[in-house]
Design brief:
Layout lengths: L1 H29 L7 H18 L5 H4 L1 H11 L5 E8 L4 E6 L9 E11 L2 E12 L2
Antiparallel strand pairs: 1-2, 1-4, 3-4
Length: 135
Amino acid sequence: MEKYRAQARIIEALLASLILISATIIAYQYYTPEANSSLGNEQNIVSSTLGFIVENGYLKYIFKNPTVLIKVLYSLVPKEYGFKIFLYNESWAIIWSFQTADFTNKNEVTSILILNGINGNTTQFFILILAISKE
């Protein structure tokens, strides 16, 4: 009797393995990696650029010296892309903006960062928008 139980468990394990392998093969046929699409790559560039700015403390230059932030963007954004950056207050009034000459609104990919800051005694929200495009 024990012999048949062991054989049944082996057959059960083989069938389970067959089902898993079949499911993997079928799923792979319908899988298209996002890294191969240009939109996924460009969104990655924009979000990682904003992440670098935040992580390395370049946000402090937004109000005092935006040219430092713009120089950092020139070094981070690949040369084949143009970029624009806008800083808005909570009323959507533009505080400052910059756009490269090779930026086009066609095929632009945008990332938004919402900042919470204290100006005097009041708390304000600021919206930082970075967009890149490739001709």
